[in-house]
């Protein structure tokens, strides 16, 4: 049995800037509200769902209970499943788990819910009664981990610099990639955001229990925190590290957001999809880990393994999307695969719209599907790096049902 994403049964909220509109909202109840509203708007009967997978990278109130907490809030309180955390690769890992469950026949319809908030990340206290004064240590979950990989002993920024040096990538080329991604994002905003409206849903900002009857609910309806980008503006930026090449313009920014999707077999996909004539088939996955301190290199071998699993080569890929925390990622991938970075990431990427962690990859996969539909079908590849010098990739095929 194969796995399919019923066309149109997925969604992403807008991504909000660091300390922006979503910064004080509890991500898990918000994910439940967004997810249930998205299912209802798409006419999906929640009783069809028999597995759910929640993905998030930061701890939140109630996250000990994970998926059953969120599905309970969604009104499907007989649906259970695991909670997944694999840093930036969380959504692809969750998609792979769902596809395997469906292909093995242990689930008929899997719901993916990705929720993360980089703003106001938790401070975790690690108790140690034997420590000085009986106190332990504290960890700023987001900031400390971005600043220090406990195994590779470097900040994430250093991985971008390491790969830039190895591949001979200068600041000018990184800025050229950033400018290209910003221009591609403008295509997603054209005609009153016609492309984004194909999948994007509002993120409600108010507490429904405190709304006056009949009063409109405040909502975030479009991405927040997109930086104005020009060739002249980028040229004025200096590398973050002395002697380095990566500027703030050549890397992504932390964000808050949500995304979700369904994964089913072929027959149920036809029933659940608002446009059953379009088929989205999952072809293969790949994961790789590279040497410590070289995270942006990991997508290349992950792609190779995903393509091998799908039984195709890079020449058969019609559209490619990446999670690119650094512009360096796309340049290294282009040199390794021969797929030009100018062709990657039509309609934008995380280099432009930010990185809330778990939802990032799923939003990119959703945009990949929609791009392929607009092309009239074809094969798509998504890849991205993740903490721990790892990468994951997935291959999809979009076409008319036979």
Task: Give a nutshell description of this structure.
Helix content is 34%, strand content 20%. The protein is of the alpha+beta class and 402 residues long.
Task: Write up what this structure looks like.
The structure is a single chain. The protein is an alpha+beta fold and 402 residues long. It contains twelve helices and 14 strands. Strands 1, 2, 3, 4, 5 and 10 form a six-stranded mixed beta sheet that branches. The chain has a four-stranded mixed beta sheet with strand order 11-14-13-12. The relative contact order is 0.21. The mean pLDDT is 95.
The helix/strand order is EEHEHEHEEEHHHEEHEHEHEHHHEE
Average pLDDT works out at 95
**Rg over C-alpha atoms, rounded to the nearest angstrom:** 20 Å
State the separation between the terminal residues, measured CA to CA: 17 Å
Q: Provide the helix percentage.
A: 25-40%
Q: Bin the strand percentage.
A: 15-25%
Give unreliable regions as ranges: none
Structural class: alpha+beta
Give the biggest sheet. 6 strands, mixed
| DSSP summary, beta strand count | 14
Number of DSSP helical runs: 12
Shape: globular
Walk me through the topology.
Blueprint: E1 10-12, E2 16-17, H1 27-41, E3 51-55, H2 66-73, E4 83-84, H3 90-104, E5 109-117, E6 123-126, E7 137-140, H4 141-147, H5 156-167, H6 171-193, E8 203-204, E9 219-220, H7 231-235, E10 255-264, H8 266-272, E11 278-289, H9 299-310, E12 319-323, H10 327-337, H11 350-353, H12 358-374, E13 378-386, E14 390-400
